[in-house]
Amino acid sequence: MTERALRPLTEEEYLALERESPLRHELLEGIPYAMAGAGLDHNLIVTNLVALLKPLARAKGCRVYSETVKLKLSEDTFYYPDVMVVCGPKAHPLYETAPCLVVEVLSPSTEAQDWREKLSRYLRLPSLLGYLILESERPGGRLYRRTPEGFQEEALGEVLHLPCLEGPVPLDAIYEGVA
């Protein structure tokens, strides 16, 4: 373990680490955590979703990012969401800060983190209108949608109507080709 890993990193140190490292790291309260690789089905779900969201986002002047773009939640916390949609100006050349939609695809190694840690942190983002959690082993998941009363949890139906984007997203198209 390097000396740098023994103490919390500053934002500048973290961004430098990410530039130099062959591995991606998420930063949680200043501590970097190497990210595990994703399985084929996980990657296919992300790819399908990006392909489905891209035309909807383009029509609204928004951008869709996948897996390799950082989301800065605070000075000492950065994640790499599986998918995020941002409709405002770019925040920084290396990260975004104000997504309207964030999507995580569950995997055995990240499921607890996505349900607990990321859920509570993402829902604090003022710009966020929806957090979608997708199962990786079968079609399904949950959508947390912002309402005037706060975030409401919704089960997924056959067609998703995601916050900040207009247009239907068929659940079976998200899972096309997934075993």
TrEMBL record:
This is Putative restriction endonuclease domain-containing protein. It comes from Thermus aquaticus (strain ATCC BAA-2747 / Y51MC23). Residues 12-162 form the Putative restriction endonuclease domain. InterPro entries: Nuclease_put_TT1808, Restrct_endonuc-II-like, Uma2. It comes from the Bacteria.
